[in-house]
Design brief:
The protein has 11 helices and 56 strands. By secondary structure, it is mainly beta. It binds 1-methylethyl 1-thio-beta-D-galactopyranoside.
């Protein structure tokens, strides 16, 4: 599709917005100077906005903004109410943007069918983001990777002709279907039209193949044109897998349009090596990408905020996601992310910021159910210490727009206190300047394991400033920074924010607890200084007030006079305190609250400030805000509050902490075995006959065999059954053995029966570090057989796990799943195969919720299923046998509606026992537990799916291979965290049996 300039500008609304068409080449010239402040926070305000960029940063309505973004996947939290909880937490902690994959497979049960209802309500998610005041970077693929089944491709796409991720016409026809469906929603939420807050949109994902070939370039050009044709008029970009320069502007056809496409790249450097320089300013950046796109701002589409953990916990030596968070901790964030800022990155997205849960059959075979990722907000939605640096830097980027336009300034020689200089001090120093405001920034990084007290020669200091830079840590210093009506000369503490509240200007500086800090603020004359809280020394010297204080909680210094009428409140906060300081912008001006564990919203009506938020411990509440503010309401309750010497209002009583939450024991279990499919007499006449002779799979069809690949028969998720009938005409025992070849992802498993008698089970080897990322897992299981003449039935159950991803664009998602070949030794009976996988997709819970177990097909996992006739049992269980057994129970919760409880289900047992469990809560498949592999023992049960006030149904489908006794052992509810406050939670629709198909 070819774009005329006219069409594009009409769509983009650019002509109306002061952007002009350049005279040559059809390129757009961008507005050269900022035209006004960007509304803050952004929302769906119904007005048109411009979203552009120059080489420094994004320009929203002409104003510079650094997009400080966190990756969040709506499909990894199947409870729409809780989306608001996550987004409010991020917004409160200083993120101004979220980046969002949309997973094709989650929305499409079949070609031509697209579902955006219920937990898949993208419209609601985008609305919530806009209501929360977050910009959105939308990433709908079509390929997303993301450690999801087939990298986001729908199961049905694995059985279609053509090569995915190329310009193949069949593939493109499906891609267009998907993009049409997703863009129809996205277009309503573009910030350019005021319908929502989408400001950037990504094409494809880490497409590192076919970079120079027509099938790649035409593919990217097709995506570009399609997305524009669908009305997406915000800037587009691609995330290059590393800074290679792939898909930089000008490398493929963008329909004659220029200046509306950015270069982006991903980075997941090892936390053990010093952070890489991307080379934006001409240094470092050994890869071609450092100069690939000089006219677009540094855009890190993904930068490691943690890392994923495969089955068996092989990435983190079995320690799980706690170890992911430990190896990418708060100091890692400061060290790496500040280096990114020093390298000109102005769109900075941390993958993941809330990882969530790969529930149902969503996870790619390489990962288990939890996708916690070691992210700043954990899987149970609890803030972790990793939010501290994000909070501090996010607030800073918001308060100090100077950081959105930086040039490199002259290097400085950093010494160590006491003598050594430069390298000897072990500090890497970046010096940056905003060319317009002359604000200077220094980023000091310590890549060594020893703490350094650096001596930093700054503008305006007589002797180098002593600055603590702890081992493997970093900090940002500012000089010449306006703080309202005062100007910072320098500080050895990191600036976090400033604002004007009422008459006074307030500035917050932060650092590690116990650090000695020195801060100097310009004062034309000697000011009056009052230390309101904590200990601080001060002196007026060389035209500046100098304050020395050791960081410990909150130190408050009130500065009056000194050449400026407005009082100035200097707040020095240690890390823990800094995340109790909440800034919110309201139409009447900013509000700063201090005390509670979370401030979600702040609004001013008349003289009252209305706050909502959370407490965990009892907390003081103090608020600064616009003049005239005299009353405080917290979570709808009016508080008695008093004016303080700090110029704030302080609640007379502490806010109460969260009350204790009591969880019931799980008992009254009922039990039933299944796998009737293994019986010779089972009626499989309704099953599909597996008699195809060709397949679009990348797995070759073995000569002389019918296609047995499950996807070719429309079965894409979970377990799949096969029944092969054959007649033995000759003497008994003609065949000696049968060999079953099968392909699965990691952790695949097979069990076989002959005429109802177990032949045995086979499982893929438990992967280790070197094999876990290997895609397809295939094996052949050989079982000895003996049978008499006459008709026989061979029944096989394959837990096939999920489809491979397709990161290298080689159609690896099309590798077969299920049986591939069956051969007999000693005889060659003709076998007629029938196959049965999952029943029709659950219309509410979606296509990835259930597989093809008998119990799943009969709705045993659903609430309301009549299990009254089942046998009562107690845990622990230790029964031996090959096959499938189900356990069901109900439990009631009565959690205070004002309490947000994060509840999990914990399973533990003797790790020698070979069995696995699928966990169904109210019919929702909350994940898979593999007792002898792990490492996951606790499964998050998100509120909404979990009725925190009411009745719940739990069903466990236990698959055991018969080699050991099988549990469950202990099964209990776990309180993972709780807070008073939270968001209102609407129960997630959980239809029972009558609705199942
Ligand atoms: C990058 C992908 O873009 C993303 O989808 C996710 O898979 C992430 O990695 C890892 O969690 S791919 C890159 C690390 C090669």
């Amino acid at each position: 599709m070819v774009w005329s300039r006219r069409t594009f500008s009409a769509l983009a609304g650019t002509t109306a917005l002061g952007l002009t068409l350049s005279g040559s080449g059809g390129a757009f010239a961008r507005a050269s100077a900022p035209t006004g402040p960007a509304p803050d926070p952004p929302g769906a305000d119904g007005t048109r906005h411009t979203v552009g960029f120059d080489k420094y940063s994004m320009l929203v309505d002409g104003s510079r903004v650094v997009l400080w973004s966190g990756e969040v996947h709506p499909f990894r939290l199947p409870s729409p109410s809780l989306w608001r909880d996550v987004l409010e937490k991020l917004r409160a902690h200083g993120y101004n943007t979220i980046s969002v994959y949309v997973s094709w497979n989650y929305h499409s049960p079949a070609p031509g069918r697209y579902d955006f209802t219920g937990v898949r309500d993208l419209d609601l998610f985008l609305r919530t983001a806009a209501e929360t005041g977050l910009y959105v970077i939308l990433r709908p693929g079509p390929y997303i990777n993301a450690e999801v089944d087939a990298g986001g491709f729908p199961g049905w796409l694995t059985a279609t002709r053509g090569t995915a991720r190329t310009s193949d016409p069949t593939y493109l026809s499906y891609v267009d279907e998907w993009l049409t469906a997703v863009n129809r929603i996205a277009v309503r939420h573009l910030y350019t039209h005021g319908g929502g807050t989408i400001v950037l949109y990504q094409l494809e994902n880490e497409y590192a193949n076919n970079v120079t070939s027509p099938r790649g370039r035409d593919y990217m050009a097709h995506l570009y044109a399609k997305v524009r044709a669908d009305g997406i008029d915000v800037p587009l970009f691609h995330n290059d897998k590393g800074r290679n320069g792939y898909w930089a502007p000008g490398t493929f056809d963008t329909g004659g349009e220029s200046g509306r496409y950015l270069y982006g790249f991903d980075g997941y450097p090892s936390p053990l090596a010093p952070p890489p320089d991307w080379g934006y300013y001409g240094v470092g950046g050994t890869k071609g990408g450092s100069t690939a796109s000089p006219e677009t701002p540094g855009l890190l589409a993904e930068f490691g905020g943690g890392w994923f953990d495969p089955w068996g916990g092989v990435e983190f030596d079995g320690k799980g996601y706690a170890e992911s968070a430990r190896t990418r901790d708060a100091a890692y964030e400061r060290r790496f992310y500040l280096t990114n800022l020093a390298n000109g990155i102005k769109v900075h997205n941390v993958y993941m910021t809330f990882g969530g849960t790969s529930w149902g059959w969503l996870p790619a075979p390489v990962v288990y159910t939890s996708y916690d990722y070691g992210a700043a907000l954990d899987e149970a939605r609890r803030p972790t210490p990793k939010l501290v640096p994000m909070h501090q830097l996010g607030q800073l980027l918001h308060s100090v727009p100077d950081l959105a336009k930086l040039d490199r300034a002259a290097d400085i020689q950093v010494g160590a206190k006491g003598g050594a200089s430069g390298e000897a001090a072990g500090i890497t120093a970046y010096h940056l300047v905003n060319p317009d405001t002359e604000a200077h920034f220094h980023i000091l990084r310590n890549d060594r394991a020893d703490d350094v007290l650096a001596a930093v020669p700054l503008a305006g200091v007589d002797v180098p400033l002593p600055v603590p830079v702890p081992a493997l840590d970093a900090r940002l210093l500012a000089t010449g920074l306006p703080l309202g009506r005062r100007t910072l000369r320098y500080s050895s503490a990191q600036p976090m924010l400033w604002l004007t509240a009422g008459r006074q200007d307030i500035a917050v500086f932060t650092g590690r607890k116990g650090e000695a800090t020195r801060t100097a603020v310009e004062c034309a004359s000697k000011p009056t200084v009052t230390v309101l809280e904590g200990k601080a020394d001060h002196a007026y010297t060389s035209g500046a007030l100098r304050v020395d204080a050791e960081l410990d909680g909150l130190t408050r210094v009130l500065v009056e006079g000194g050449g400026t009428d407005a009082p100035f409140l200097l707040l020095l906060a240690d890390d823990e305190t800094s995340v109790r300081l909440w800034r919110h912008d309201t139409p009447s001006g900013p509000v700063l609250a201090y005390g509670p564990a979370l401030l979600r919203t702040a609004a001013l009506r008349d003289t009252t400030v209305h706050l909502t938020g959370d407490t965990v411990e009892a907390a003081d509440l103090e608020v600064w805000g616009p003049r005239g503010m005299s009353e405080v309401v917290w979570n709808q309750g009016r508080l008695k509050a008093r004016a303080t010497t700090s110029g704030s209002l302080r609640a007379e009583r502490r806010l109460p902490g969260v009350p204790a939450v009591h969880l019931p024991a799980l008992d009254n279990w009922r039990f039933h075995t299944e796998n009737p499919e293994s019986d010779a007499g089972f009626d499989d006449s309704a099953w599909k006959v597996a008699d195809r002779t060709s397949s679009y799979s990348t797995t070759p069809v073995p000569a002389g065999q019918p296609v047995l690949f499950a996807d070719d028969y429309g079965f894409h998720y979970g377990d799949v059954w096969y029944r092969g009938r054959f007649e033995e005409a000759g003497d008994a025992g003609a065949a000696e053995s049968v060999s079953l070849s099968y392909v699965t992802g990691t952790q695949g498993l097979l069990m076989a029966w002959l005429d109802g008698k177990p032949l045995g089970a086979h499982r893929m080897p438990v992967p280790d570090k070197s094999t876990v990322r290997k895609g397809t897992w295939s094996a052949t299981a050989t079982f000895p057989v003996r049978y008499a003449s006459g008709p026989h039935v061979l029944s096989v159950l394959v837990r096939r796990m999920q489809h491979d991803m397709d990161g290298a664009a080689k159609d690896t998602h099309k590798a077969a799943r299920g049986l591939t070949a069956v051969t007999f030794a000693g005889a060659s009976p003709a076998v007629t195969w029938r196959i049965q996988g999952e029943a029709a997709p659950d219309p509410v819970r979606g296509p990835l919720n259930h597989g093809g177990l008998y119990g799943e097909r009969q709705g045993w996992h659903l609430p309301g299923f009549a299990d009254g006739g089942w046998k009562a049992v107690d845990f622990p269980r230790a029964s031996r046998g090959q096959g499938v057994a189900w356990y069901r129970t109900g439990f009631r919760l009565a959690i205070d509606p004002g309490v947000d409880a994060s509840i999990g289900l914990t399973l533990t047992d003797d790790p020698a026992r070979a069995y696995r469990v699928q966990i169904f809560l109210n019919g929702w498949n909350m994940g898979q537990y593999i007792n002898d592999v792990g490492p996951q023992h606790t499964f998050v049960l998100p509120g909404g799916v979990l009725r925190t006030r009411g009745a719940n149904t739990l069903a466990l489908a236990v698959l055991s291979d018969g080699t050991t006794p099988a549990g469950p052992g202990e099964v209990r509810l776990t309180l993972m965290g709780s807070a008073a406050g939270g968001v209102p939670v609407t129960p997630v629709d959980s239809p029972g049996r009558a609705h199942a198909r």
